[in-house]
Design brief:
Helix content is 35%, strand content 25%. Helix 8 crosses helix 20. By secondary structure, the chain is α/β, with parallel strands linked by helices. The chain has 20 helices and 22 strands. It has two domains: 245 residues, P-loop containing nucleotide triphosphate hydrolases (Rossmann fold, 3-Layer(aba) Sandwich), CATH 3.40.50.300; 243 residues, Rossmann fold (3-Layer(aba) Sandwich). The protein is globular, with a radius of gyration of 25 Å. The strands form five sheets. A six-stranded mixed β-sheet has the order 6-9-10-3-11-12, sandwiched between helices. A six-stranded mixed β-sheet has the order 18-19-20-15-21-22, with helices on both faces. Strands 2-1-4-5 form a four-stranded antiparallel β-sheet, with helices on one face.
Length: 502
């Protein structure tokens, strides 16, 4: 009999269907791997099981009996613990306080029993003795710890629930190899005790090292469940893609005209190293679109921001138009001919509450070193770039916030085209943009490449890379682990390179 079973579970957020039909059955004494591409619905399914998301439909059974999970506390009362992908730690509290946060020991029902708290936390800290690293201690403040150490605290916090059912949503993403191996030893011990565990990971080597069974979710729907011993990596990737390996590996579309006509190098990156990425080297020619692929958070955005001078660099060099770019700030990169467009409009793009014309022209002011300019002249200067993107708005004096998300992003891109750059760095530029606006954006991007711009495109959507990039550099663990060009540019190869061990 299954320990935990979710059947036909669905969840929608307005018009967005996060989970169409989620099925998952976990047995006692097993590590059940849940895998799927970004946005496939696997985290939503786990959050439903943990009570932090309420399903719209479906059934949940525990030890064969239907249950209603009212919320996170209700899930804990039923014996379900979870490690969240987005860490839920109290940064200003100590390690031991965070470990016991969900069940603080009390004296007389009112005061925290510090002695009991320390004793309980010490058991879980000891599990990672020797691999937690310098500065890790029971009384250390969590906010002062490294990313891997904070992740260990979150794991300890989940283990401290002593729940019969444990869910781990990408628990190893920030851990080193020694920490991962110690964690897997712990999971094997829990399995021997009869615990039921759900394990989400994007690393194929981990999945086949620790898993007993694997369930694949694609586009919000459970598509397959297999015993790990009865499958292989190519089959699992084929199920994620939606095609058998032989068909999925067929050639991509022929090289674009821009690829065939690519000119001299305009951007050269050699050995670039910094927080979140290491030893990145590549070249972009005029008229070429180079794609950054791989799972989200593997260093792609950090590299783009580093080239633009907005992220620290500890080693390596960037050459733009044959001259070394000492881009210690975005201003220097802009003046050398680099442009950067972020998918996070509210953080890196629009100037909130200001008129559209002010959002269009700051780069023009900087590159032309303007002090004063007539509004009419600015509007005329901006008009060709705005029209090229089919941007819709009532007037240049209207606030940027009056526009839709897609039109806001068009304004952000248009600001860079008033004075044509040499290199365009696109950091997931269509995030949160509707389909019509995406089509306009990529039509313009291909046109700019044909006119001789060098373009670097990172997209979290594989279809965008495959349809637009001439070459794809696949990032894994902060490094470029594979380059896909020509007929190697397939969804299957992209998934395989992203999910293999770095």
């Amino acid at each position: 009999m299954s320990k935990l079973k979710l059947s036909g579970v669905s969840k929608a957020y307005g018009a967005t269907l996060a989970l169409r039909r989620g099925d998952l059955e976990v047995e006692a004494g097993e590590v059940h791997v849940l895998i799927g591409s970004n946005g496939s619905g696997k985290s939503t399914l786990c959050k439903i099981a943990a009570g932090s998301v309420r399903p719209d439909a479906g059934e949940i059974t525990l030890d064969g009996r239907p249950v209603h999970i009212s919320g996170p506390q209700g899930a804990r009362a039923l014996g379900i613990g979870i490690f969240y992908q987005e860490l839920s730690l109290a940064a200003h509290r100590t390690v031991e306080e965070n470990i016991c946060l969900t069940n603080l020991p009390l004296k007389a029902g009112l005061f925290i029993d510090r002695q009991a708290l320390s004793a309980r936390a010490a058991r879980y800290i000891a599990l990672f003795d020797g691999v937690a690293g310098d500065g890790f201690a029971a009384d250390a403040t969590v906010g002062d710890l490294r990313a891997d150490q904070r992740q260990l605290v979150e794991i300890m916090k989940a283990l401290a629930t002593e729940a019969p059912i444990l869910i781990f949503d990408e628990p190893t993403s920030a851990l080193d190899s020694a920490q991962v191996e110690r964690f897997f030893d712990i999971l094997r011990g829990l399995k021997a005790e009869g615990r039921a565990m759900v394990f989400i990971s994007h690393r194929m080597d981990e999945i086949f090292s620790i898993g007993d069974r694997v369930t694949v979710i694609r586009d919000g729907e459970t598509v397959a469940t297999s015993r790990i011993a009865d499958t292989d990596q190519a089959t699992v990737i084929g199920q994620m893609v939606g095609e058998p390996p032989a068909r999925a590996a067929q050639a991509a579309p022929a090289a674009s005209a821009a690829e065939e006509a690519a000119g001299e190098p305009v951007l050269s990156v050699r050995g670039l190293t910094g927080p979140g990425y290491s030893d990145i080297s590549f070249e972009v020619r005029r008229g070429e679109i180079v794609g950054f692929g791989g799972l989200h958070g593997q260093g792609q955005s950090s590299v783009l921001r580093a080239i633009f001078g907005a992220h620290p660099v500890s080693a390596g060099e960037v050459t733009l138009k044959g001259e070394r770019l000492d881009a210690r700030s975005p201003r220097a990169a802009i003046l050398h001919g680099a442009a950067y467009v972020s998918g996070d409009r509210s953080r890196d793009g629009i100037i909130q509450g200001r008129p559209i014309i002010e959002n269009l022209t700051p780069i023009h002011y900087l590159r032309q070193r303007l002090v004063l300019a007539r509004p009419a002249a600015l509007r005329e200067k901006a008009r060709p770039a705005v029209e090229a993107l089919h941007t819709r708005f009532a007037g240049y004096s209207h606030p940027i916030n009056s526009l839709s998300g897609g039109n806001q992003q068009k304004i952000v891109i248009a600001r860079w085209l008033i004075d044509r750059p040499d290199v365009l760095l696109l950091d997931d530029p269509t995030k949160g943009v509707d389909l019509s606006a995406k089509n306009d954006l990529f039509s313009l991007i291909r046109k700019l490449a044909a006119e001789g711009l060098g373009i670097v495109l990172y997209s979290s959507e594989d279809a965008e890379l495959l349809a637009n990039a001439d070459r794809i550099l696949v990032f894994n663990g902060g490094q470029v682990t594979r380059e896909l060009a020509g007929d190697e540019r397939t969804r299957f190869n992209l998934y395989r390179a992203a999910y293999e061990a770095a």
